[in-house]
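Thought: the user wants the 3D structure for the chain below. I'll pass the sequence to the structure tool as-is, report back what it returns, then summarize two notable features.
Action: structure_tool
Action Input:
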Amino acid sequence: MIAMSLFSAINQTPYPRTMTVLVAATLAVLLDFIIRFRDYRALLHSLTVAGIMKSLGTFTLVFLQVVALFYLITLLPGPLRVAVLLFSVFIVIVQLSYWLTLSQFMTATDLFLSVTVSGNHRLEAISSFFKPRVLLYALPYVLVLSGLFFVPSVSVFWQTLTLGILPVLYLFTSNYALFLHVPERSFHLNPLASFLRSALSCTFENFHTYHGPRDDLPTIDAAQRPLDSIIYVIDESVRGSNLSLNGYPRDTTPFLQSLEAKGLLKNLGICVAASTFSHVSNAYLITGHNSFPDHDFRTEKNPTIFDYAKKMGYETLYIDVNQIYLYSLLQAAGGGPVRGLDRWMNDKTFKELNIDLETTKDLGVARILSSLLNEKSGYFILVNKRGLHFSYRSSYPDDPAATIWKPVMKALQAIDPSTAGREKLVNTYDNGLRFQVDEFFQELVSKTTNQNYAILYTSDHGQTLSEHGQEYTHMKPDQEVVDVPAFIVSGAGYRKQGLLDGIASGIRVSHLNNFATLLDLMDVPMSLRVRTYDTSIFALTEEDNSERHYMSGSLHGFGDYVVKSIPSPPAADWGVSSPVNKGIQNYEN
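Observation:
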């Protein structure tokens, strides 16, 4: 009521629009100071004198952005203004939910993911980020925004257009200056101005990104179709230290361990993922790039693993049921951003084959793989599995036999970092992991009769599982997020078993080693390798990879990013996971 009275009084002044906008912008910024006081205090304590001066300049720039944004809203006619104000309220709620969960507003990378991933991932993200108390934080912003509704509209279209040109130009030019000189996470002032900055940063980054063709491979004589098949499985959100294969105290991977006992699985231990973001890890995994960040656009320029496989005579398939990275690139095979691809199988393909992935989960993918391998040899198949993206309860069926560890979370339930909440979180995750990883391989291996295959398996990133009170699962540079599995499963008739047996013990593996490993599995000669890739797993020694790097944030380094590493020896708690309570295992092996 006080705010409404204030804006009503302002409307009686000689310049009601300008005064309303200035007051609303000032109140919005003051609200941000009050609500996020600890963030501003931490920022102030971390800055040098020069940094404080730069921040003051940035503060002025962004405050004027809030003014310009609010001014543009007041120029809109009534119905359109209402629609924009309602959308603004939605953005405020989203931004504050992000802040409550991740201690930051959305960045351009986050926004890019929100518009490129599948609808299922968006729903799961909302369920993990949204908390009802965010509405209390958003209410003061709503009251401030509501004051903009009462400013009289401009009745003449050309006058509206003229008044809006300068604020629009200012928003573009000032945000471009921030894009070039101020990392996104280092300065936020207002949820709406921050969202606009992220949206424009996506546009600026796309303008600067390389859009040309990939490098060509040398011409060689056409190769005959190989006698073996190579499968590259990139799982989703699987943490390596939660596999009993890697010493986890729960029996999460009994079938994989049985394969290891038979000599059909070579465990490479805990691998360091390239990134805490799915699309970044996938970009590095399929192109073999090995420098962080990708300033030179090598993930857009390097030949992909499909190019090499095609040169070596393999029939190339991409099974995509996760829709993370390649989904946005696969406009067409051939001359597009992904060449050398014979066949792309996605959710639509599975529906046409009458395979319900919502029921079968990744077991439906395993059945397709086994049928392909049984049909003939000579495939190279890249698989992006659904895996264990939050919420974990949706990763295994509503079957009591699949609920091994209890109690569990409900579907779409938000993360609770308390001891009781974490117990449910880990129980649910472990149940999903057992089904989506161990049962997947049991289905695939047991149904495959043609034994001339090798499967290189890893995950795009791991999960935090709330060890340190995190209410987020990944997308921040926590060391737990780059804890992923790596192993090679081979059929009994695989002709290069001696190569697998020769892998040195005690090696430290990174995602960056995978590309050359695949080239070795496909017998790609050195003369055909147009880039210098990291060492193949088959050539790694105990002395290699003493420091394994990873990145979080912007793929090309335009926005905010950080490069970190896992040293050797790693921290005592890295590569280790443990349940809050081992729980009751009611499943007989």
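Final Answer: Structure generated. Confidence is low (pLDDT under 50) at residues 331-335, 584-589. Strands lie at 229-235, 265-272, 315-320, 343-345, 379-384, 453-459, 483-490, 547-553, 561-567.
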